[in-house]
Amino acid sequence: MEGLLRDLAPQALGALVRRYGRGCFDECEDAVQEALLAAATQWPAEGVPENPRGWLVTVAGRRLTDAVRSEVARRRREDALALATPQSALLSPPPDAAPASGRDDSLHLLFLCCHPELSAPSRIALTLRAVGGLTTAQIAAAFLVPEATMAQRISRAKQTVRAAGLPDRRLPERLADVRQVIYLIFNEGYTASNGDDLTAPELSGEAIRLARLLLRLAPDDAETAGLLALMLLTDARRPARTGAGGELVTLAEQDRSLWDAALVEEGVELISRTLPRGQVGPYQVQAAIAAVHDEAPDAKSTDWPQILALYDLLIGFGENPFITLNRAVALAMVEGPGAGLAALAPLEADKRFARHHRLFATRAHFLELLGDPTAPSLYREAARRATSAPERRHLTEHARRLETGAADRRNA
Fold first, then answer.
1. What is the DSSP secondary structure assignment for residue 248, as one 8-state letter?
2. Which of 115, 149, 251, 270 has its CA 20 to 30 A from that of 164?
3. pLDDT value of position 325
């Protein structure tokens, strides 16, 4: 029941927003929430209606109408709604009818939440609230900000959408915006940028759910399939990413028997089916890289030349410091740490990335492999710059182990 209501909520909200306009986004959202509460109470006792989506839209529409009529101050808004409704809408199917073929209001709602006028944080927050069904408190907790701050962010996002007008509906470009927001949500869940926990599973899980929804709405979009495959193959490693005490475990040290085999199988099957279909995009290439990692029985068996070749292909889609960093790691595994160290030079000259903790940590790793005694100090510098507590502890502990080992060798 909970899963059904969660899937239907964005569809109902999208239908109301489409019918009554973006100017009533808040009111439509409140009406849908009331309809969901009514469904949660009535359906277990009376049974799920034959057309549950239509039921929710009808009940929410009535609640919205009641809310408009309940206060004299809202009569002006009611008049505005009536005047704003185009004649074509009056002749269209009722809101409780099944969606027309090829059209789903969830996609419309995703487009609306990922409006180009919104900043990336606002897109993420509004998407999680309106499409993901998370409460403001849940979103605030996931991003470690006060609930009042997140409420203001969501409110401002709604106001921006209300004032900016409908986004361009050209499908390929708009899908790219939605994919980017979903991937940002996943990344924040897979490695939290702040806090004591390495991951925020509710965020990455929600991103995967949204990607499944997006692929269902646009089944022929290869990059959306690539995004879903990438997230499945990456999230499969989650059980092995932390130790018993919550400490970070690197990919090379992970117990691969703990990886989610079902997610790996689904991700590999999806990307294997998608890659031959047509033009390859960056999400598909990243998914292919993740598949090579996941299919290796152990770290030593990883096909690093193939991964390096895929990173060379990925670089062609545009500059990205994280991709350049990861390519340097692959290069070091193929040609040695000296080659990897040289490949970091462009990043060290990049003002946007030169102070990032992962650049310091990667440089320290290469120097460690070369036996350079400055590696521990670079690990400590990376730890000072890290915002995630588990990453900070991991880097600090690694530096300590290197320093202890060096001292023991000197004293031997």
1. B
2. 149
3. 96
